[in-house]
# Entry
Amino acid sequence: MEREDPLQRLERKEAEKKSNSGLKTVMIIMTVLAVILAGVLAYVWMSNRTLVSQLTLEKEELTEQVQALQLDYENLSSEYDVINSQLDSSREEISQLIDRLKKTQATDRNKIRQYEKELGTLRSIMRSYIVQIDSLNQLNHQLSAEAASARREAAESKKLNAALTQQVETLEGKVSAGSVLKARALRVEAFTTADKKTDRSSRVERLLVSLSLVENELAQRGPVRVYVRVTAPDGSLLSDGRGTTFTLDGNTLEATASREVDYQGAEVELGVYVNNVSSYQKGVYSVEAYTEQSVLGTAELLLR
# Structure
């Protein structure tokens, strides 16, 4: 057996020593990287867990707010059929919103934000109901007070009896009925080209605004034209291209669409179609219905 040269043996040992040292260095680096990666993964996991907890809390708070608004709507009432019908519609919207909230994952932030906007809209609508009810109550109280005052004056002075009696009858007639046409069950729905209801903006072909002119023996008989104004989420007024206008309280207003019906004092159901609108955007559409004598009511439609 050939004897190894001492110099070669020394060089071989030095090479082995360097090789082992390099291997140890690589192992140390890999160990450090593994520890860092484990730390990053733990941080990400904790962050996600914290985010999910925050989103779950937001959903719970939003649900509580919607339920509180639902209770407010339940406690709100009026003596007017038109407003009561609108209240019933809003109560149904809140119930549907609660159902959708329960079925939606807390991590679906887009839907949660959408529900927050719907909640804000429903709150605004409720405030408008309160203003309407308060205004009508004040008007009713004012007319009642005026009628009572006129009756007292008629009893106190025989000379003014005829004039005051006529005033009492006129005021009492305004309180009990009035000659202005009123409406109920105002609603708006969206339809596709296949004439199916939809709430998706991309599928809407036309809108249908439906309402009923209520019975009124004092109202004038004959042709009545009902005008609707539909406002898009961006605040612009939709138009069917006909350029329809009407006059209310001396002001000329543009209408989205209109329809004429024969009114003979009995309740009349009617629908006004909104056609020839090129496209619809997502959001809440506001609808107002009018005759040339009065505002018939308002409604809203949410398109996704």
